[in-house]
Amino acid sequence: MKRIFLAASIVAVSALALTACASGGSGSTSAGTILIGGIAGTTGAYGSTGQAVVNGTQMAIDEINAKGGVIGKKLKFEAHDDGASATTSSQLFNKLVSEGAIAIVGSPDTGPTTASLSSQKKIPVIGAVDDGGLTVYPDGPDKPPFPYAFSTSLNTFAWGGAVADYALKNCKGLAVLHDPSSYGLGGLAGIKLVFDAKGKKLALEDAITENWSTGATVGLKSEIDKITASGADCVDVWLTPQDQASFVQEAKSLGANFTFLGNDETSADSTFSDLAKDQADGMISALLSTEVHPTDALKTFQTKYKAKFNKDSTPFAELSYDAIYMLKQAIEKGKSTNAQSLQNQLNSITDYDGLTGKLTFTEQQHTTINKDQLTLVKFSTTSKSWEPLG
Amino acid sequence: MSTFLARQSPRSRRVTIGMVVLLVAYLASTFGVANGSYGTQSLVLVAAIFAILALSLDLVAGVTGLYSLGHAGLFALGAYSTTLLNSKFGWNLFLLLPLSIAGVGIVGLVLGFLSLRVSGLYFAITTFIFTLVVVVLLSDFSFTGGLQGIAGPVFPDFPPGLAFLGSSVAWCVGLSLLVTIVIIWSIRSSPLYPVLLAIRDAEPFAAAAGVRTSVMKVGIFGLSASLAGLAGWAFSFLGFISPGQFSWTVSVNILVMVILGGINTRLGPIIGAAFVSAFPVVVSIDPFLQEVIFGLIFVVVIVFFPQGFMGLVGSLARRIRARFRPTAVVVEAVEDDASTPIAYAHLAPQEAVSTTRALPAVDEVALAAKNIVFGYNRGVLALNNVDMVVKRGNIHGLIGPNGSGKSTLVNLMSGRMSPNSGTITADGVRIERLRAPARARRGVMRTFQSAVLVRELTAQENVGIGLYSRFPGIAARSPIWPLLMGARRDSRAIAQKSIAALTSVGLSSGWATTRVADVPHGVEQLTQLAAACIAEPSILILDEPLAGLSSGEVEQVSEILRGLKRAGVTVIVVEHQTRFIFEMCDEVTVLAAGELVTTGTAADVRANERVREVYLGQ
Amino acid sequence: MLQVLLSGLSIGAVYGLVAMAFAVVFYVTRVINFATGQLLMVAIMLTAGLSKAGLPDWLSISVGLTASTAAGVVIYFVAVRPVLRFDRFSFAWLVSTLGVAIVLQSAAAIIYGPTSQGFPKLLNRDNLVIGGASITLQELLAIIVAVVAVVGFEIFRRRTLFGKVGMAISSDPEMASAIGARVTAYAVAAFAIGGLLAGAAGVLIGPITYANPYLGDTYGITGFVALMIGGIERPAAAMGGGLVLGVLSVGANTFIGSQASDWFPFVVVVVVLLLAPHGLFASGDALKRLASGIGRRTATLKGAN
After folding, report:
1. What are the angstrom distances between the C-alpha of B391 and each of B187, B356, B371, B541, C203?
2. Is B263–C78 a contact, with Cβ atoms under 8 angstroms apart?
3. Where are the bilayer-spanning segments (chain C) (predicted)?
């Protein structure tokens, strides 16, 4: 009996508390600030990527605020860790939207969730929406993208295309070993787009489920046997950097003489080269051309970033920084933070001069980074760096 | 309303008021959430869905003792079937509600049937693998959206006239939670609840009371599964589903919610679900630190309050109550030491069993076991070609040295095991292939050598379990028990009969409301006897009813046996105390080393040479 | 075929060691330590960290193993003992050990950062070719360690007094404590052995997976699955479960398709559990078990009607 009263009072109190929250939650935009939400996995094995996204965004926002903000208002950034959990990510998305966020940055881990929610809730998601590709174009590269997902992120289609170009020129046969998420499938789609255009076929394509993020994927040895049997001399390992390093190590210890090709994450930070050490030598990947020939703006950013966070800047920080400036431009042009207006303005940004290159959105193009902005590179252990090819 | 209230007893009036308060609070909070921000909604709705899952898991884990790790898989089936059937085939969402409840329920029944052949941790293992397989299937097929998942269906908004109610999804989830709470709390207040606890803690006792325990377990698991299906149906409206949201770690998380909140409590699972699902979203500090704190809370709460948040609340409540009423003793502890004499009521032997069966002719056979052969392992026979014929209305003793096969024979007669060959008839019907519950329903009841009762229930509640087979449809009615007039009447009847049965075995009313964990051994034994008598058996088998009893209590049992005999009940007693046997019994069967030595009247057997040799040691 | 067997056994040995770490603890205390995977991680991270700091490999490994052993004992005192003292039959240890797991891995992520780091190569450089199949010495070592662990544990269990009393405790702790066995000492020993086995698994797999604070999750899960396959009653059976899981995964990958390793082992497990509900290596010889399994099945079918 007492329990029932206890239950009743608990429910009543929480009801009051919640309605109080509900009424007090929204409306932060009216107070002279513009809220930009951030969702990124800052913990977990990919935490460093999420941290780069948050840091890069924060730098852009601090700079903009120091120069007086946007349309007379200050920007405010509120970022949360989604722990790479889709449920948490959607809870956070809703939380941020109800707090009045005009756009959400991210998520590099749960991109499919944020991209899908953006079109349901009609709120733009920008920046590192996973690795572009199938996350933004869920039905394939030739179908329309999510209307509210604007990715400035590294784009699996672009890297797939660049790597495929290399393979067409230099390989007798290309095998692709990829993970079955939108990340691996996006890379495969990018590669196939180029191969199909030339009427060529892959020697082998195989999906392998990764023990996501910790790189503890096993059974790579039997994949190596299959690839050898397929007659391929080049293999693109569209897995996480940890697994790429494991794969290269296993293949070399088995004496397999492949040319190893990478993906957007291979050269995005030093994870792969640190783990693979000597065996990283000769790995083919692609870098943003701006990373190979950094502009002054990029050099300044990288110095400032290093000074502020005591870490080297990565493309994920730079592309998030770009995303905020593109958003700023969209707000200023439309003189509004209304979602519809933002969508229209973002769709009409052409050749924005960002850290990651000349960036363009159109109705059809919702990823800024494409094949033409990439430079093929090869890792050299003597210089311990990625060197441009040819 | 006021006249309705006036007609009720003070207790049930308070319950009614409580329920009304609860309902108003529920409506107010749902209204608040439905008109709240997206953030509030998302937070509360996810918590509510996990509350449904936690409540349904508590029903199988906390109440019935089956630690399922299959709930994430069942949850996934509900969510994915709703999403896919709606988006690919355009099925109506409200048609999908009963379909996903029934469909997932059936999957649960099959899963339960297959995995309940094993209990304890092995049940956890098979259900765990079920979740694994479901998630792998969802990830590896393209029509499910693969690893990246699929957008859920859009729940229709309220028509304009009802728009003031706010978000329709919030009401939908809120209603699902309410239905779940009603079902679970109803079961907890129904006579099925003690029966389920008995299945968890004292399965042989439940089976002997006529409960078909394996069917019941499968059924409860099926119910729990269908609630998980309901949760899945509702969850699909929250936006986006992907396989990672249903992995086995989610199963473990639901179990964590139950245990952290307080296992086998009304509110614990709800509190646990709210805490675990909301903590990562609400608390916004350095993410690594946040994780550390999250883990620390798990450890600290469980280490200091092994019963979870409800244990914490309970201890706080006791402390507050003690402060306000410093003189009142918190629990009127029943002294367990032998110095306090057990309070027995004045014995009313005539009432011991109020059987309505007509007194039969003395020579008629009540129970006959013929040519019984039984061996536990190949080779060694525990019973070899044993006969035992029990006449109706007799008290029939069964004696023999240790290892003579008495207990085996009792187990064969009561249905815990079946003989390798031979026949057993009760009232002329062959029963040797029936299981214990079926035999109990035919009027063959038994007690156990050492009482196995549900320790956390009172003596009265334990005795009520014995009535399970006498009140039809307890299980079927339990999910809406308090809402049924007839059921409430049955509850009262069960309580009255239980108290009467306890009185009839000589236990005063003080014992009726004491938890069995706190009563001395003798009371426990007598409670067990009452539980067997209450169902008005025609044949009652007592396995060493005197074990551990004081001489006063032995006299008590003798008196009860005489009462039973007067009421026409056939009694079979296995006992070591030969003085008691020869005094009480009309006939006695003697076993030695798995073989029949003799059967005859007490006097004949006492005089038998071989009996003296093998048993009396003279 | 031989390659499948060798690769399967070598990775299965690691799964098996983790499963054994679960099982030894369960055997004595009836507790499943959900932080077992994190003990593996503790050994990996410490070994990697110390060797990066310039310590010789053998010293880093010893410190890593000592730490995982000690952490096992700490888990017993912090998260398990208080719960069991309250109620020996409660499942509350599930929450407290899981809490420890979260704390350990987040703490490691704070200390070392979330990104993978290098791990000493150890014996992973050297390759051995047997009948056309190749295996690295590290993988061979894993198989050897697994065999030593099983044989050593069984000898310890059957031939030493401590082990025999341990058996008694596992079957009836109340009785054992009544005859004067120090149950706590055995529980501490079990958690220590569990920590050591998990740590050993970590050192064996580290050169292949590198060092990551979240590895505990990955191997905790696979070790747990291996435990389920082998059966929970005997540590040696858990090792068997690990080996079976390893061979089945690699075999499925080779003969069916790369993603078959996700589901094939579990299909096998389901069939096994239907036939022999107490795990593959529970007791008795295989044929008898199969026969009795089928017998029991039909009996249950009958009984349920």
Report:
1. 41, 19, 17, 13, 73
2. no
3. 6-27, 34-52, 58-79, 91-113, 133-156, 183-205, 236-257, 263-287
- φ and ψ at residue A152, rounded to 5 degrees: -100, 10
- Summary mean pLDDT of chain B: 83
On the 0-12 / 13-18 / 19+ scale of CB atoms within 10 A, C90 is middle
CATH fold of A28-155+294-370 reads Rossmann fold (3.40.50)
Ordered by start, the domain boundaries in chain A are: 28-155+294-370, 157-263
Q: Is the dihedral of CA A94, A99, A101, A104 positive or negative?
A: negative
Q: What is the pLDDT of residues C79-127, one digit of tens each?
A: 998 888 887 777 888 889 999 999 999 999 889 888 888 888 877 777 7
- In this structure, which amino acid lies at residue B331? V
Q: What is d(CA A117, CA A122) in angstroms, rounded to the nearest whole number?
A: 8
Tens of pLDDT, residue by residue over C137-196, are 888 899 999 999 999 988 888 888 777 777 777 666 666 666 666 778 888 999 999 999
Class of domain A157-263: alpha beta
CA C49 to chain centre: 23
Q: Which of B61, B214, B260 sits opposite C304 (nearest CB)?
A: B214
Q: Please list the residues that pair with A385 across neighbouring strands.
A: A380
The C-alpha atoms of residue C141 and residue C119 are separated, in whole angstroms, by 17
Taking alpha carbons only, the member of A178, A163, A124, A166 closest to residue A146 is A124
Kindly report the three-state secondary structure assignment for every residue of C231-250.
CCCCHHHHHHHHHHHHHHHH
**Among C residues 79-108, those touching chain B with beta carbons less than 8 Å apart:** 79, 82-83, 86-87, 90-96, 98-107
The residue ranges of every structural domain in chain C are: 2-256
Task: Please name the residue that has the structure tokens 């970590």.
Answer: C202
Tell me if A121 sits within 8 A of B38, measured CB to CB.
yes
Residues 6+ apart with CB under 8 A from B469: B209, B210, B211, B437, B440, B441, B535
Residues C51 and C60: beta-carbon distance below 8 Å: yes
- Greatest mean pLDDT among B115-119, B173-177, C119-123 lies in B173-177
Tell me the three state secondary structure of residue B400.
Answer: coil
- Asked if residue A104 lies in contact with residue A125, where contact means CB atoms within 8 angstroms, the answer is yes
Q: Which amino acid is at B580?
A: F
User: B536 to chain C nearest CA, in Å?
Assistant: 26
Per the CB < 8 A criterion, the answer to whether B51 and B269 are in contact is: yes
- Cβ distance B423 to B430 under 8 Å? yes
Over the stretch B518-574, which tens digit does the pLDDT of each residue have? 888 888 888 888 888 888 888 999 988 888 788 888 888 888 888 888 888 899 999
CB B40 to CB A121 under 8 A? no
Distance CA B350, CA B369 (A): 30
Q: How far is CA B515 from the centre of its chain?
A: 16
**pTM assigned to the model:** 0.85
One-letter identity of residue B30: T
Q: Which fold has domain C2-256?
A: ABC transporter involved in vitamin B12 uptake, BtuC (1.10.3470)
Q: b/e per residue, A217-251, with b = 16+ CB within 10 A? A: bbbbbbbbbbbbebebbbbbbbbbbbbbbbbbbbb
Task: Find, in chain B, the residue whose alpha carbon is nearest to that of A134.
Answer: B148
What are the residue boundaries of the structural domains of chain B, listed by start?
1-34, 37-279, 352-443+538-618, 455-535
Residue C212 contacts residue A215 (beta carbons within 8 Å): yes
Helix/strand/coil for B339:
coil
Mean pLDDT throughout C8-17? 92
Q: In this structure, which topology does domain B352-443+538-618 adopt according to CATH? A: Rossmann fold (3.40.50)
**DSSP letter at A203?**
S
Q: Kindly list the partner chains of chain A, i.e. chains with 3 or more CB atom pairs below 8 Å.
A: B, C
**Residue C51: φ, ψ to 5°:** -70, -30
Give B37-279's CATH code, choosing from 1.10.3470, 1.10.3860, 3.40.570, 3.30.1360: 1.10.3470
